[in-house]
Amino acid sequence: MSITVDTVSYTAGNTLIVNGVSLSVEKGRVLGLLGPNGSGKSSLLRLICRLRKVQSGVITLGENDVASISRAELARRVAFVEQQSNTDTQLTVLDVVKLGRTPHRGLWANWTADDEFAVEEALLRVDMLERAEQFWQTLSGGERQRVHIARALAQTPSELLLDEPTNHLDIQHQLEILSLVSKLGITSIVALHDLNLAAMFCDSLAVLQKGEVVAAGTPEDVLTEDLIGRVFGVRAHIQKSPVHGRCNIQYLMR
Q: What pTM did the predictor assign?
């Protein structure tokens, strides 16, 4: 497995946020992390990339306990894309993506051909190379998110974590972002709210409720009418989509 979470718990103050969570992601696959607001999705992602400290349990990347990996190595290995990142500094798209090379360079290191290749390749993969000299502030929300992903890809990570990457985007950009992530071939965990998008683009799903995993497996196994009612509090009808072949969820009025 590329990422394994084994009975991990995390408490903030007196509140148990993540409670004995276990899950795993195979190399090159995409895991969708689902759950209501406050279920622990964002906290779990931060535990995996060590922005939060695990209080019990073990997280491994490949064969290595994440707690034993140096900060420098972890920064080179794991890329984290948050919901939104803003800056008042006048930066171009190229400037933002170049920041992804920081973990690979010493304090006074010269820019290398490897750096140049990684940045150009990242911009190509998100279809933003022609916008490289455009200022960040002039981009749409969807374009900014693609640049964030390009910055992450410039790190040349082996694991990619994304926290609600489609939040506040219109449907076109939601589809574009998740289609892009699903084709990267990088081990990825994506926290999502939209169950239909998760079913379309994720290889497997894990559902959190009150900090615990209540279901995990393929989209077809996880997204049942019973689970959606219990966890999300809504009635649903599920059928196989004739378009993409994955399960499609229709929400019903009570």
A: 0.92
